[in-house]
Specification:
Shape: globular
Number of helices: 8
Largest sheet: 9 strands, mixed
Strand content: 15-25%
Distance between the termini: 27 Å
CATH architecture: Alpha-Beta Barrel
Bound molecules: SN-glycerol-3-phosphate, magnesium ion
Radius of gyration: 17 Å
Number of domains: 1
Strand order of the largest sheet: 1-9-8-7-6-5-4-2-3
Oligomer: single chain
Amino acid sequence: MPPSSAWPYPRIIAHRGGGTLAPENTLAGMRMAKQLGFSGVEFDVMLAGDATPILMHDETLERTTSGHGAIAETAYQDMLTLDAGSWFSGAHAGEPVPSFENAGRLCIELGLWANVEIKPARGHEAQTGTAAALLARELWRGAPVQPLLSSFQPASLVAARDAAPEFARGALTTRIPPDWELWMRKLDCVSLHCDYRMLLPQQARAVRDAGYWLFCYTVDDPAIARVLFDWGVDAIATDRLDLIAPDFE
Ligand code: G3P
Ligand code: MG
């Protein structure tokens, strides 16, 4: 059932942890978000070669770590010595690739709400959805605020629902497709997450009128955030934690 209540989570979400102020998908990024007063973070969860859920955006190590090769072919044990901070700045040298377990624990410790984006490597869609949902259940058991699980991959969302149906789920898409309502029902999602550059005001209205929540990424201009909120968008993810304050309305 789509929600009929107001979005119960923070409205301004730090994208990939600390946006552009810290190396993406790291614990340093989350600490940065917290330090700046943010109360919600988005991050990407992928499976390492040994099926450990980790924080990672790309399917390969090269762009954001000192390592080489495919994430799906590298055991997490072999990632422990990698540097996931130097690509960003010398001040972050030695920053580790976090496990989802450590990231989840830090979110709980810091009181950060989490939008867990399930980001499977190709061919691992269902497995990643299952693993992320089961670990989320374990990590957030008894916590007052639960994470929202989202994904671009329908198979990941279905697997997450089958493994841990209690979580709110968000369907991610670049552009809202014409059959979005059918798609939301099929995937049993409560929120629709899209690229704000592809969103039309009439689509925003239709999504909200149908009772779904609407989340836009990645909004870095306060003037655009203003327009989106006027259209009825519930929440945005931003890379510019320095330009869009956590209490921006
Ligand atoms: O979850 C929203 C956003 O993170 C999707 O894009 O590529 O940054 O994971 P990406
Ligand atoms: Mg993401």
